Amino acid sequence: MSITQRLLVPAGLKVLITGGAAGIGASIAAGFLEAGARVYVCDIDAQALEDFRRRHPGARGTVADVGREDAAAHAVEDAAQALDGLDVLVNNAGIAGPTGGIDTLSAPDWERTIGTNLNSQFYFLRHAVPHLKRSAHNPHIVAMSSVAGRLGYPFRTPYAATKWAIVGLMKSLAAELGPEGVRVNAILPGVVAGPRMDRVIAARAQALGLDDEAMRAQYLGKISLRRMVSAEDIAAMALFLSTPAASNISGQAISVDGNVEYL
């Protein structure tokens, strides 16, 4: 196989993506579909899922609250049946969580962030790993973390706590599953342009008593390249990690962020 051939996603790869109907997840799903993979997405937003499948009729999917194990179990088993197995799990689903000082946060907001961002990864792993172990096609897990999984993030402690935990989960699983041929890596997106980031900037600006444009300038000033990344940048990394060229990449926390220096 030539080097350029090694850079191609194998046709027919069977991929499950959580939170796959919008944002980064939808970009990853669209990228895999474009590459000829078979794709199953789950999402809590039924309308977003319907819209995604209208744009991409080749995709399969279901509505699922990823923070519930029964929903995760159903999604994994339905995906494995629809695709006739699993080769790749992209644990992408997550929420921004609350913004504020630690003494102002509510326990329900903390627990919802932990449940959606961290517990969901465990639920999908628990049910998907047996299928991945049976794959003969370079099985791989992508754990979606964040630049907040390598840097402290004032006023966003619930979110940062989950993203650091995801890196630890990935590192441990890479060692656990490596002997069985299953690779595990984490992608750490930086400041991703889009509506979600606009909401985060607005909430943080309010918490710090700044206007939105001043807050946006502060974010860009912390990035070496002085620009946000796109959802397609993250999707490209997820696809690369699922190619033969990445067959010996495991246990890595890979930042796609323009080099965010601090948060």
From TrEMBL:
Keywords: Oxidoreductase
Cited Pfam families: adh_short_C2
InterPro entries listed in its UniProt record: NAD(P)-bd_dom_sf, Sc_DH/Rdtase_CS, SDR_fam
Domain of life from the UniProt record: Bacteria
Family statement: Belongs to the short-chain dehydrogenases/reductases (SDR) family.
PANTHER family registered for this protein in UniProt: 3-OXOACYL-[ACYL-CARRIER-PROTEIN] REDUCTASE, SHORT-CHAIN DEHYDROGENASES/REDUCTASES FAMILY MEMBER
Protein name as it appears in the record: SDR family oxidoreductase
Lineage: Bacteria, Pseudomonadati, Pseudomonadota, Betaproteobacteria, Burkholderiales
